[in-house]
Amino acid sequence: QVQLLESGGGFVQAGGSLRLSCAASGGTFSSYTMGWFRQAPGKERVFVAGISGPGDNTNYAESAQARFIISRDNAKNTVYLQMDSLKPEDTAVYYCAGRKRSRIGIFGSEYNYWGQGTQVTVSL
Q1: Which of 72, 89, 64, 62 is nearest to 21 (CA)?
Q2: Are 60 and 51 in contact (CB under 8 A)?
Q3: 33-88, pLDDT tens digit by residue?
Q4: How far apart are the first and last CA of the chain?
Q5: Rounded alpha-carbon distances, angstroms, from residue 12 to 48, 50, 86, 98, 116
Q6: Cβ–Cβ under 8 Å, residues 92 and 120
Q7: Alpha-carbon torsion 77, 79, 37, 18, what sign?
């Protein structure tokens, strides 16, 4: 059973940066495709970015391209989301997710394991 724990959320002004981390335990981390999703108040949870097990393939939602970077350190069982040029519309709870498949899924239903989420709030 894989357990995921996010950290790094907080308050930031528009234009600022945050780096989210997700620490995994209980499985062979390098064999899991990892993703970041977010859910804004009153909205559905949506895909933000994903990365393959070896870290050699990534996928981004259009809203994240050119501003966010997903990476992973398999030696530390951790996946990261570097978020730059943050906008108020990035405000959401950000979730880390894992799936034991090689393809990067973009739907929440494709992921088996979820963290509890970390709040990101971007003010004007």
Answers
A1: 72
A2: no
A3: 999 999 999 999 999 999 999 999 999 999 999 999 999 999 999 999 999 999 99
A4: 40
A5: 19, 23, 8, 27, 21
A6: yes
A7: positive
